[in-house]
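Notebook entry, structure prediction.
Reason for the run: the old model in the group folder had no record of what sequence produced it. Starting over properly, with the input documented here first.
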Amino acid sequence: MNRHRSDSHALTAAYALNALDPGEREPFTDHLSRCEDCRLEVAEFQATAARLAAAVARQPPAAMKQRTLAAVDGVRQLPPRSSTTLSPVPLRGTLRRKAGRFAVAASVAAAALFAGLAAWQSQESRHYEQQARQIEQRLDDVSTVLAAPDARAAHGRTSNGASATVVSSALRNKAVFTAGGLPAPVPGTTYQLWLDHDGTMRPAGFIQQDGTVLVDGDAADAAAIGLTVEPAGGSTQPTTAPLLLMDLPA
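New structure, fully documented this time:
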């Protein structure tokens, strides 16, 4: 990925995803020490990637703990195997042996916990595997745009005070939109993205609140990106004044 020095600000997303070449990462790391805007943007991209990865996380059911503890109480401790008669051991050896028994008991408890988790996960495996694949695909799609050799970034601010960044790639014909500090929409409404094609605003997806999304549609043929508040489910044309209307980076 070769870039001109003037494009340093466009490397924030690729840096956050560890997508820079070794020869680019060191100069950009030095650039970060002098550029507060880039440091903030890198932090936002890293937080967004973490939120996307965490979207598949799920807490085990509350009854899992009780089932695990009950299983531990009913597990019998096996005696150690030994073919020789041992001489009396000092107190330190006794303590070590007891500690070893506690370790074995802990291992049994961990095994019971993992067995319970496996049973619980198998019941909903299809759903979560599908969800994980979808999120993985979204991460791959976003990473492909951010790491594209012709990726360019533009920055703006919405009328309700949120920061906005769009990264577009003509080679990939895609764009990625990131928002930070976007207030939660009023119940019954959603934030909808738009692409401006020769003066016609076409639906380009949704963003729930803070985060990063892949913009729907042909970004290479669009001149600008917009953001409005629309009824839940979206609209075919904007129905409110734009919160943001920003030229796509050339």
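Summary: The helical segments are 12-16, 22-32, 36-54, 63-73, 91-123, 125-146.
The old model has been moved to the deprecated folder.
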